[in-house]
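Section 3.1: Structural characterization of target chains.
Under the original work plan, the team committed to producing a structural model for every single-chain target entering the pipeline before any wet-lab resources were allocated. The record below documents one such target. The sequence was received from the expression subgroup and is listed exactly as submitted; it comprises 146 residues.
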Amino acid sequence: MKILIINGPNLNMLGKRDSKIYGDKSLEQITSLLGKKAQKLGLEIASFQNNSEGKLIDFIQEQSRSSDGIIINPGALTHYGLSLRDALIDSQLPIIEVHLSNIYCREEWRAKSVIAPIAQGQISGLGWKGYIVALEMLASELKEET
């Protein structure tokens, strides 16, 4: 089984951004930890980060037919990325939305997600470990289906 790990705008700056909010691990470190966990779960992951909504959509469109699920941290696109939302819907894959910080304890505008209504679940505020939880949950659900 193959899981897409998608990260939106500014997540390439993890490890350099405000560590009190986003933690001190870089995206590369998080991706490495996810790869190790995926291997233990018998999964393959394909990771992609971009600051452009269009390139995220292209990746979803190119990869969704050969994939079984999506874990996405849309970054700021969480709040207004309607074309990203449409691409996720069109993928017809189970989706888990992840946020490093607790978006409900920050600015009011951050609490609105256009992705949450189409996702199986949302993990917010667990830092980098939220990705691991999402991977474990998605793996469990996919294995139950087979």
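The chain has five helices and five strands.
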